C-alpha cells in the first residue's frame, strides 16, 4: 500500500478505471460550518491518492472532472455526507454513486451495525483502527497516522462492493439499492437546503 498526497488537486493523467472509492475528511459534521479538508481516492489497487485543501482553496478541475465523469462510479461509505460536502465546497454533483452503507442497510437486516469498521470486520475479516477519526484534519501537515487512517476508509470499499452486490442480488433488492443511489444527489441538496432532519415523505 502506498499513500500519495497532493495539494489542491489531482495530477494530470491519473486514471482510476470504471470505479473509484471516495471519502472525505472534514473539520466536523456540519457542512455549513465545518470545512472540507481532504478527499481520498482509490482504484482498489492498494494505493490511496489524497487531495488536501487549504482553507478557501477549492478549485480542483482534475478532481471535479473525475467526480462528475458518467463512466466512473463513485464508491462511498455513507455517501449522503460526503456528497453533500463535495457539493458544498467543490460545487459539483457526484454521479453515478454507490453507497456501501445503504447497501448494508438493505441486506444486513439482521443487525443495526452498519459502520465501515463493522462491515470490514464481518464481511472481509479486516479490523480497522479508528484512533484518528477525531483529529485535526485542517492541520497544514497531516501525520502519517492520519494519512493511514484516511487511506483505510477507501482501500477496502471495492471488496465490500463485490460482497454487497452479491447479497443484494441474492435478496432481490438490487433495483431498490440503485434507486436509493440515484436519489443521493437530491438527498444531499435537501440536507444543504435545510431539510436534513425532516422526513419529507412522512404524513
Structural write-up:
The protein has 203 residues and is an alpha/beta fold. The protein has one domain (2-193): Nucleotidyltransferase, domain 5, CATH 3.30.420.10. It is 41% helix and 17% strand. A 6-stranded mixed sheet has the order 1-4-3-2-5-6, sandwiched between helices.
Quick summary of this structure?
The chain is 41% helix and 17% strand.
What topology emerges from the helices and strands here?
Elements (H helix, E strand, L loop, with lengths): L1 E6 L11 E8 L9 E7 L4 E6 L8 H8 L4 E4 L2 H12 L6 E3 H8 L8 H9 L19 H12 L1 H14 L3 H20 L10
Parallel strand pairs: 1-4, 2-5, 5-6
Antiparallel strand pairs: 2-3, 3-4
Helix pairs in contact: 2-7, 3-6
What's the count of strands? 6
Quaternary assembly:
single chain
The H-and-E topology, N to C, reads as EEEEHEHEHHHHH
Helical residues, percent = 40-55%
Largest sheet: 6 strands, mixed
Structural class: alpha/beta
Distance between the termini: 50 Å
Total number of domains: 1
Overall radius of gyration: 16 Å
Number of helices: 7
Task: Describe the structure using short key phrases.
203 residues, alpha/beta, Nucleotidyltransferase, domain 5, 6-stranded mixed sheet, 7 helices, 41% helix
Amino acid at each position: 500500500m502506498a499513500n500519495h498526497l497532493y495539494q489542491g488537486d489531482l495530477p494530470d493523467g491519473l486514471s482510476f478505471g470504471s470505479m473509484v472509492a471516495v471519502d472525505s475528511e472534514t473539520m466536523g459534521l456540519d457542512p455549513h460550518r465545518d470545512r472540507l479538508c481532504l478527499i481520498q481516492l482509490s482504484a482498489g489497487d492498494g494505493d490511496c491518492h489524497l487531495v488536501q485543501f487549504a482553507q478557501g482553496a477549492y478549485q480542483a478541475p482534475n478532481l471535479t472532472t473525475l467526480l462528475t465523469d458518467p463512466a466512473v462510479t463513485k464508491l462511498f461509505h455513507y455517501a449522503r455526507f460526503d456528497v453533500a460536502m463535495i457539493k458544498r465546497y467543490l460545487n459539483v454533483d457526484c454521479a453515478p454513486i454507490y453507497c456501501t452503507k445503504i447497501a448494508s442497510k438493505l441486506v444486513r437486516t439482521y443487525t443495526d451495525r452498519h459502520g465501515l469498521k463493522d462491515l470490514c470486520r464481518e464481511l472481509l475479516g479486516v479490523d480497522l483502527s479508528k484512533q484518528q477519526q477525531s483529529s485535526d484534519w485542517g492541520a497544514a501537515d497531516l501525520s502519517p497516522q492520519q494519512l493511514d487512517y484516511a487511506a483505510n476508509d477507501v482501500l477496502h470499499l471495492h471488496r465490500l462492493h463485490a460482497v454487497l452486490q452479491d447479497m443484494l442480488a441474492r435478496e432481490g433488492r438490487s433495483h431498490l439499492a440503485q434507486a436509493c443511489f440515484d436519489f443521493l444527489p437530491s438527498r444531499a441538496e435537501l440536507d444543504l437546503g435545510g431539510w436534513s432532519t425532516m422526513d419529507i415523505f412522512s404524513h
